[in-house]
UniProtKB/TrEMBL annotation:
Transmembrane segments: none
Coiled coil: none
Keyword presence, Ribosomal protein: no
Span of domain RNA polymerase sigma factor 70 region 4 type: 142-188
Organism encoding this protein: Alistipes finegoldii (strain DSM 17242 / JCM 16770 / CCUG 46020 / CIP 107999 / KCTC 15236 / AHN 2437)
Keywords: Sigma factor, Transcription, Transcription regulation
GO terms (BP aspect): DNA-templated transcription initiation
Protein name: RNA polymerase sigma-70 factor, Bacteroides expansion family 1
Length: 200
């Protein structure tokens, strides 16, 4: 099924996964969240994390990867908490983000699989590797890597520093092969984007 055909199908998934419930006090929680209220964040997480994980897992067919994606989504929500008071429907907002994240994961995995099947990196990957091993900018890369989410940070270091393959990383971190591929793809794209901004 092509991604452009998923819009009506995603609505069906929402119903199947029980992701249609919205709470009357969500707006109040969002206002409190925007002020840095940890309890408001915890309540929103408890309410929506299970259904969002089911929704994403249904699309990408991986519970482990879905859990990682949901974790990243809520981390971003906390980082952007000051903007949350402008959200009218948190349920609609978070499932829209979840759908996009799921499709990004599928695209990223397809790119990574294609890359490995040809046994040669795409130009942007080789550029990132060149940046990483260039001594004059290594400090910038180290700084960018330290800012990554913990799981992505661990995957990146195990791959680039320790030289582990996908299977070894997945086994050590108890995550799927697809999740490893996704983390590496996102990490490399993030580094390339930031370095392009610095050295453009």
């Amino acid at each position: 099924m092509y991604i452009r055909e998923w819009k009506p199908f995603c609505l069906i998934i929402l119903l199947i996964c029980g992701c249609y419930m919205e709470y009357d006090d969500d707006k109040e929680r969002l206002i409190r969240l925007s002020s840095g209220d940890h309890e408001a964040f915890r309540i929103l997480f408890t309410r929506y994390q299970p259904g969002l994980k089911k929704y994403i897992a249904f699309i990408i067919k991986s519970d482990v990867a879905a859990e990682d994606i949901v974790q990243d989504i809520f981390i971003k929500i906390w980082i952007l908490r000051k903007q949350m008071k402008a959200i009218n429907s948190f349920r609609a907002y978070i499932y829209h983000i979840g759908k996009n994240a799921a499709f990004d994961y599928l695209r990223g995995y397809a790119v990574e699989r294609n890359y490995r099947s040809h046994l040669k990196p795409e130009p942007r990957i080789s550029q990132i590797e060149a940046y990483y091993f260039a001594s004059e900018i290594e400090s910038h890369v180290r700084m960018l890597v330290r800012k990554m989410p913990r799981q992505r940070y661990n995957v990146f270091l195990m791959s680039r520093r320790d030289g582990l393959n996908y299977h070894e990383i997945a086994h050590r971190l108890n995550i799927s092969h697809k999740t490893v591929a996704n983390h590496l793809h996102l990490a490399l794209c993030e580094i390339k984007h930031e370095l392009d901004e610095i050295y453009a």
